[in-house]
Amino acid sequence: MTRFFVEKSELLNDRILLCGENAAHARVLRLKAGEEVVVCDGAGQECLCRVESADKDLFALSVLQRRAAVSEARVKVRVYMAHSKSDKFEHVIQKATELGASEVVAFSSSRCVSRPDEKSLKNKLSRWQKIAASAAEQSGRGVIPAVRTLPSFAAVLAEAKETELPMLFYENEDGFSLSDAVKGKADFASAALITGPEGGLTEAEVASAREAGVLVCTLGRRILRCETAPLCALSARMFAAGEF
User: Fold this and answer.
1) What number of CA atoms fall less than 13 Å from residue 7's CA on the CB side?
2) Tens digit of pLDDT for each residue in 26-56?
3) Which residue in 66, 79, 136, 197 is a FRET match for 152, CA 20 to 30 A apart?
């Protein structure tokens, strides 16, 4: 069913108006009076609505039912990916949103080739959040994942260790797998998945992760690209949690 995202306050009304980009989208979809749509606040609440009137620049909807978003994962999984070249992070934002990530976070590490400055990051963040919103709308989610940046690997570890299951994926680890990490832990409520840049993480960074209590895991015998690893780990983690 078609869905739209609006400000949280608008969901409190019995009548919701779609204007601006939402109206333009509704117009492209050729929505007509009598059709039903879902309107979300992007934070987990949604309304089942009926189109009452459809004009060029304004669509009026009546609320039929209010409910918690029915498509959200039970587990909150943050994806931490080191800054990468080109548009690789944009691809990860889109796919991680579809797979159910709660947040997608970019960070700087020792071997990052891409090192955007503060001004560049501000522009990128605006674009990245729009990509997450579009992916959430397309995939039927009720929550738009937050897209953020952190200045350092140390900052990532400080956040990640607050989750129930913090994991880092390292190509040189061969004794402890993702399967080992999740064994007997299907009922966890939060997790953090950390992956490195094109050149990988340094031994010192991996050592600091171990010291912080982060589980260092392998994703198998093959070397995955920096944009493949986080999506592989997220898919496996969601499967282990019973989401698939």
Assistant:
1) 6
2) 888 898 999 999 998 888 888 999 999 988 7
3) 136
Same domain, 133 and 59: no
Cβ–Cβ contacts within 10 Å for residue 182, how many? 20
Q: What is the pLDDT of residues 127-182, one digit of tens each?
A: 999 999 999 988 989 899 999 999 999 999 999 999 999 999 999 888 888 888 87
Same domain, yes or no: 167 and 215: yes
What's the whole-model pTM score? 0.85
Q: CA-CA distance, 78 to 72, in Å (whole number)?
A: 14
Q: What is the CATH number of the domain that holds 200?
A: 3.40.1280.10
Sequence-ordered list of residues with C-beta below 8 angstroms from that of 178, at least 6 positions apart, any chain: 167, 169, 217, 218, 219, 233, 236, 237
Residues 58 and 91 in one domain: no
- Rounded CA-CA distance 212/210 in Å is 5
Select from 18, 52, 68 the last residue of a domain: 68
43: nearest Cα among 119, 156, 136: 136
Same domain, 86 and 125: yes
Domain CATH number, residue 16: 2.40.240.20
List the structure tokens of 201.
């993480």
Question: Is residue 36 a contact partner of residue 66, using CB atoms and an 8 Å limit?
Answer: no
Q: Residue 223's domain spans which residues?
A: 76-240
